[in-house]
Amino acid sequence: MGRVPVSAPTGFHHTPVYIGRPFAQTAALPMPDEPSTIRVVFVNAASGQPFSVSEVALDELPDVFDTESEIAIADTRYEIVEAQPAFKRDFAATGAVTLTLRRLELADPDKILFSLPSIDTTTPKPGDTECPPRKRLTIHEDDWRQIEFISMSHLPGIRSEMSAVERVYQECRQGPGFRRIHVREEIGAPLFDALLDLRKARKELGDRKSLKGFSVGGSRRLAADSFAFETDLGMTFFGLATNHTATVLCCSVHTPPQDPDEAAKRIAAFTARHRLVYVDWCWMVALNEDEAEFQKYFRELLKR
Questions:
Q1: Which terminus of the chain, N or C, has less C-beta within 10 A?
Q2: What letter does residue 152 receive in the DSSP assignment?
Q3: Helix (H, G, I), strand (E, B), or coil: what is residue 175?
Q4: What is the pairing mode between strands 137-139 and 214-216?
Q5: What is the spatial distance between Cα 63 and Cα 22, in angstroms, rounded to a whole number?
Q6: Cα 93 to Cα 87: distance, rounded to the nearest angstrom
Q7: Residue 92 to residues 36, 60, 84, 218, 295, Cα–Cα distance (Å)
Q8: What dihedral do alpha carbons 215, 282, 208, 299 form, nearest 10°?
Q9: Where are the domains of the chain?
Q10: Among 91, 135, 89, 144, which residue's Cα sits nearest to residue 228?
Q11: Sequence-ordered strand ranges (E) for 104-235
Q12: What are 176's strand-pairing partners?
């Protein structure tokens, strides 16, 4: 994560403050004759009380403060819980921004256990559109591409990545977690040759309610080129698309089908029709066409 130094807040003389930027900032405001400064008020999320104030040059602040990004004050790291206002264009007009911060406690790295055996190396890029929670799907960053459809052309990559996940289970399992996590990076474009028309895919999967897209973590902004929809079987699908062609198609890990047998029939036919593999990475499942195997899998999902 890039770090941008800003002036020290009151009470921390000669100590740099760093505001984490999870995404590259490209826009720049014209420089005035005299540097414009913004009054930044730091509020403790636990007490609700301000604990410091700093005057910061406008061009040293990000275009938008995303929640879950980090800021360092002296030797203490904080997570941004809320920014009012969040966008540079707004606090440039008001001359002030209030950051509500939660102190981060550092854990002993030797005692950390991962809750998942594997995550994907890619991260959806944020777009510019804000969307109310009721009109978007919100996913945790670790849920990205955990259950997904992948072109049959990627079978060698699927086998390779599955073998790596299996090694984590065999060698790194400790109680409820894992001492190591496998980061998948072999399959960057899962649907590169599928030419999957998103409009047809929605219909085939039983689209009942279309959403504006999805956001990641606490961000209010939709991921760029994202889509999401809920089906008549209670499943939720989401991903990325360009010109109505899906480039990533995922299934939410939190919405198993209400009717596992009908879901098995539908998903098996979908994978056969488009030469796709349905992959659940963390449970080491890779299925295509076989309705009976899909039935077993979906029935097991309902028991978890």
A1: C
A2: G
A3: coil
A4: parallel
A5: 11
A6: 10
A7: 9, 12, 12, 23, 56
A8: -150
A9: 2-103, 124-155+185-303
A10: 135
A11: 118-120, 126-130, 137-139, 147-151, 173-174, 177-178, 182-184, 196-197, 207-211, 214-216, 221-223, 226-231
A12: none
Question: Which has the closest alpha carbon to 287: 155, 124, 172?
Answer: 155
Name the residue type at position 94: T
3-state secondary structure 33-64: CCCCEEEEEEEECCCCCEEEEEEEEHHHCCCE
Q: pLDDT band at residue 109, thresholds of 50, 70 and 90?
A: low
The amino acid that residue 256 corresponds to is: P
156 Ramachandran zone, left/alpha/beta (phi>0; psi -120 to 50): alpha
- Start-to-end CA distance of the chain, whole Å, equals 35
- What is the widest separation between alpha-carbon atoms in the chain? 71
> What number of other Cβ atoms are within 10 A of residue 79's Cβ?
17
DSSP summary character for residue 179:
S
Block residue for tokens 């996590």: 181
Place of tokens 């299934």: 251
pLDDT tens figures, 238-285 = 999 999 999 999 999 999 999 999 999 999 999 999 999 999 999 999
CA distances (Å), origin 179, targets 96, 111, 168, 173: 44, 8, 8, 7
Report pTM. Answer: 0.68
Name the amino acid, one letter, at 249. Answer: L
Closest CA to 228 of 219, 216, 300, 218: 216
Place of tokens 């009054």: 39
Q: Output DSSP code: residue 7.
A: P
How far is Cα 124 from Cα 56, in angstroms, rounded to an integer? 30
276/187 Cα distance (integer angstroms): 14
